[in-house]
Structures are given as C-alpha cells and as structure tokens.
Design brief:
This protein is about 45% helix and about 20% strand. The chain is an alpha/beta fold.
C-alpha cells in the first residue's frame, strides 16, 4: 500500500511539474526571442543627409549585436510625414523604427491635420544626440558673413533663397526664425532630403542653406561649401566648426535652432523590446566607429533612457509650438 501511495505522489508531482512548466511557457512574452528577423529603420528623408548618415552608422553596429540585419528604408516627402506615418501604421513589435528629427515634434504645430496621432502613435526609444544646423553657402558665393546675407535679403526682398531638407524640418525652421528675427524676406525651397538640397546649393540653384552639421561637414572641410555660422547658442565643439561663429554672435541676439536625432517605435511595442533596442542603440552610439563618424561633425551624443527622450521631445514640442505661433511660421 505504501508503495502505491509513493507511486501516486510521484505521478502527481510529475504532473504538477509539467503544469508549472507549461504555465511558464505561456507567461513568457513572445518578444523574448526578439529579434528573429531583420529590423527596419525608416529615414523620412532621401539618402545622403545627416539623418541618413546617423541611421546607417548606428544600424551597422546594432545589426551585429542583435544578430539580424538593420535595414535603412528611405521614405522622403511631406516634411517627414510620409515616412513617419508608415511607422505609425506598422505592427508594434519592434521591427520598424523611425529616425526622427525636430520635424517630428514641430509638424503638429505646422499641420492642421496629421494622418497619425502624434501624442499616442509612438513610443520613444532613445535620443541619439543633438547638433547644430550650419548656415552654408557655396564656395564662390558673394556672401562672406551673416551680415552679407541679411543685407542681400533686405536689398532684394524674396530674391535670396534658402534650401531645406523639407517643410517643417530643422533647416526650414532655422531659416524661418532667421527671417523673422532679422525682419527679412527670403524664399524657402523645400527638398525631399538634405542630399538633393545640397546638390542644388552646390549647383547654384539656391543661395544658402541652414543644413545639419552631419550633412555638410565634409563639404565644408573640402572647401566646396563655406560655413557662415552655426545655429546653436554656443560654438560647436567639432574641430571643423570650432572657429565658426554662432548666428547670435553674428548680430541676431537670442537666435537658437538646434537639430537632433532620436528613435521611435509604434505605440504598443512591448516594454522589453523597447528596453533591448535602447540598450543596443546606446552601445552603438558609444562605439569608437560611431563617435569618429559623427562627433567630428558637431553631434553631441546623448543616449539616455526612453523616459529621458520623451521628456526632451515634449520640451522641444512646446518650445517650437511657441516659436511657430509667435513668428507665424508656415509650411508654404
């Protein structure tokens, strides 16, 4: 009888053990195996600009660490709205991200209606870094200083043109803020990315550009473009831009228009997936390869938590909403 009871207890224990194991498997999130397929980072600009450069440089290291390819998907147009909307409508599984810029937080102030919910459509992953925009002209331009640009714009209202990588981008806002604070009239020419904008600037189709440092540093160093000023409150720590004055010290007090890069995923993405993406991206932007590629171009690396990025982005949204309203900035 004792043997029968012992055997019964053993069978019961085995059954309970199996049940517990099954329960554990059910409770384990499906994202535990993340990633098991390629990851896509949508860049809402054409290839060749600063956003594209930052995403591609990060993607190489992230892909190696995650064991899956990180594909860069350029989807330019509508001041980043086309690419951003594609991400908002993607599955919230961590496999589709957007490399956002200041345009992400400014578009709600510039657009009466967006195809996605700005406040509820995304979850922050990481603020990659902050950098200046740079007021540049081609090497043979008659403009040698900020004062020259202002004088030309006042002498011929509407004749001086400035390029940007798209309506609502940091370059566009930097130009509009310049116009308003100097009380000049300049014509905005939006492109589908910094690459084509710089091509036309070099070709003489446009006069000036408030470009991201990452997009134009190589052209400045090679002598193809001349940097007149940076848009940050203080001079850039970048060796290639350290001697370039700020727009504020060039005669426009209070002028500040930073540029930044950050990753978002669709809202509803599992917290553990976001945490893994944050940790992987954080390590990627701290590598010597990434620093060598972008810090020399003015990018000050951040790399905090998703909560840090969310707080920063909300502050930027509020700041630019005020600027847009007070200066009557439009997307043309």
């Amino acid at each position: 009888m004792q043997n029968i009871l012992t055997l019964a207890r053993a069978k019961l224990a085995a059954l309970l053990s199996c049940a517990c194991a099954a329960s554990f498997l059910v409770a384990t999130p499906a994202s535990a195996a993340f990633p098991d397929k390629p990851i896509k980072i949508v860049v809402p600009f054409a290839p060749g600009g600063g956003t594209d450069l930052v995403a591609r440089t990060m993607g190489i290291t992230m892909g190696k660490e995650l064991g899956q390819p990180v594909i860069i998907d350029n989807r330019p147009g509508a001041g980043t709205i086309i690419g951003t909307d594609a991400v908002a409508k993607s599955a919230p599984d961590g496999y589709t991200l957007v490399m956002a810029t200041v345009a992400h937080v400014v578009n709600p102030s510039l657009q009466a209606k967006l195809p996605y919910n700005y406040e509820k459509g995304f979850a922050p992953v990481i603020l990659v870094g902050v950098s200046p925009n740079v007021l540049v002209v081609r090497a043979d331009s008659p403009y040698k200083s900020v004062a020259d640009v202002i004088a030309a714009a006042k002498a011929k209202p509407g004749k001086v043109s400035f390029a940007s990588q798209g309506a609502g981008t940091s370059a566009h806002l930097a130009g509009e803020l310049f116009k308003n604070l100097t009380k000049t009239d300049m014509t905005h020419i939006p492109y589908r990315g910094a690459g084509p904008a710089i091509t036309d600037l070099l070709g003489g189709q446009v006069d000036v550009m408030f470009a991201t440092a990452a997009a134009v540093s190589n052209f400045v160093e090679s002598g193809k473009l001349r940097a007149l000023a940076v848009t940050t409150a203080t001079r850039s720590p970048s060796p290639s831009l350290a001697k370039v004055p700020t727009i504020a010290e060039s005669g426009i007090p209070g002028y500040v228009a930073d540029s930044w890069y950050g990753l978002y995923v669709p809202a509803g993405t599992p917290a553990d997936v976001i945490a893994k993406l944050n940790a992987t991206a954080k390590r990627a932007i701290q590598t010597d390869a990434f620093k060598k590629r972008v810090e020399s171009e003015g990018l000050v690396i951040n790399g905090g938590s998703p909560e840090d990025f969310d707080k920063y982005a909300k502050g930027e949204e509020a700041r630019w909403r005020k600027v847009v309203k007070e200066n009557h900035i439009t997307t043309d």
